[in-house]
Write a structure and sequence with these properties.
heterodimer; A: 264 residues; alpha/beta; Rossmann fold; nine-stranded mixed sheet; two-stranded antiparallel sheet; 15 strands; globular; B: 357 residues; 2 domains; seven-stranded parallel sheet; five-stranded parallel sheet; 24% strand
Chain lengths: 264, 357
Amino acid sequence: MKVVLLTKAAVPNVTAVRIDPKTGTLVREGVPLMINPWDRDAAEFALRLKDRYGGTVMALSMAPPAGKDALESLMGMGVDEAVLVSDRVYAGADTLATAYTLAKAIEKFAPDFDVVVAGEETTDSTTAHVGAQVASWLGIPYIYYAIDAEVNGRSLLVRRYLEDEGLIETYEIDMPVLVSVQKGSQVPRDISLVRKLEAKGRVKTFSNSDLGLPAECVGLRGSPTIVAKVFEAKLPQRKGELFEGPPDEAARWLAAKLREVGVV
Amino acid sequence: MSQQNICPEWPEIRREEYRGVYVYAEHDGNSLKDVSLELIGKARQLAVDLDGAEVAAIIIGGTDAMARELVETGADRVIRIVGEGLETYNPVRYSMAIAQVLDKYRPEIVLIGGTKRGRELAAYIANTLKTGITADCTELEIDKASRDLIAIRPTFGGNVLAGIRCPQRRPQMASVRPGVFPKPSRDPTRRGEVISERVDVQDGRMRLVAVERKVERDVADLPPVEKADVVVVGGRGLGSADGFHLLVELARALNGTIGASLMAVRAGWAPHTRQVGQTGKTIRPRVYIGVGVSGAVQHIVGMLESKVIIAINTDRNAPIFRYVDYGVVGDYKEIIPRLIELVKAAPKPTPTEKQPV
């Protein structure tokens, strides 16, 4: 079977992103880029399908050239080939334009795919949109929060966990299908450093002149949403009273505060 | 911008044809999800800034009682979608059915509760309509001059808020997690229209074949974490599952409930349903009491709107102390048993109305 693994190969380490107080814009310079951590669950899910049913896994990412390293890491996990689509015209894409670009890349580089596997969400924007949007652009069925899957003829039996309802549902879905993998549901295998080294130079990079997508459908121009403003999350004013002392007194102090608040 | 500069994949639309604020009302067959009612309340507020635009709820199946509750909570109109293949939940069919109805009624804003299922549907619906969607909004505002929705959401782990607009496309879509907005009270005198909308979604490509309940033992028979005035939240600093017993006792004494940080859930000390934070529930109780919770920003965004924040932690440098009204540096194992005695000994307070925050 042919599996396409979607990945966001260069997400900023979120704890390092700050706002420039003068310009009100995000300071991304010097912020380390990394693979979206939840995509390693997706990679494990994709590789398990390959382990059990044979075939190949192709990783696909739309990212700046720095994304190459993450794709090499995925090859170090056992992914067979990796495609990076990277172009300045893709910059500023929202999730709809990102999904459009990825869907078109899938149609071009893996038209005979059976399963597209995606991570639940990214750590930087946490929308969980792109999986469903890629499925929509491709016109294929999709499922979120998958925990495992098995092949049954021409369909995939997918078990998924709905945390907020405490339910595990099993769907039988005709392939081709997009499966988004519940974060934390897999135990991702290690990256083999030998294999990662072997992957050097094997990531195929394509620009928009290869994909030939209309400029008005990609990047900022192909994005219905725009970021109108960014600002630092402002914290509500808090009293900030700290007590440090023997446990007896601490308990009495807290009880008094709870009484003031009206819950005791 | 003229049409030739717009992606040819996007159908041509006329913005001014789109009016009204619609909410997708999710239910489990027995009752509506609270978040759907919370969004009806928000939709009513937005409608004020849109010259009294109509507020409508879209519900798949549902009951007469649900339709009535939606009207009494603030919907002017309830559109009940019926049709073959919609008896049980199915992401593709549900998304397509909702998209078809939205395409017919053309609201300017669509709000969807950010439950697991809601998040699954929202982006597919938006993509079907080739419009923009903003996930997990924490505030929604209207720019009156343009009638644009400004959807505010935390990004980059909650350090930063972004205001997102969708100036060219309609409807403007947004998802909101449960508990972000208050649930409005019901007004039994409100009247509204209920319309049945038959939708034909022929798509047999995916079939639900089994449903099982995942057995995850709860720490105690206490109310859900988002439904109590007082929430005692345990973190990694508790050191063990046993620590939760003490917290349960305190929660009972305060007529409250129990919550947990991501680390406490990962350690298996509490079920997922009690997790507070970015990947769990957003809560806004009258009193939040964090015990052994370090205060990672992902946790803070889920409790920041609590009226009063209290923390107990042995580490005086724990980040959570930056957010507290009252903080105690010390060992909860010594403090909480004494606190429980004092609480139990106190005369019971007269019950007060839960104040809207």
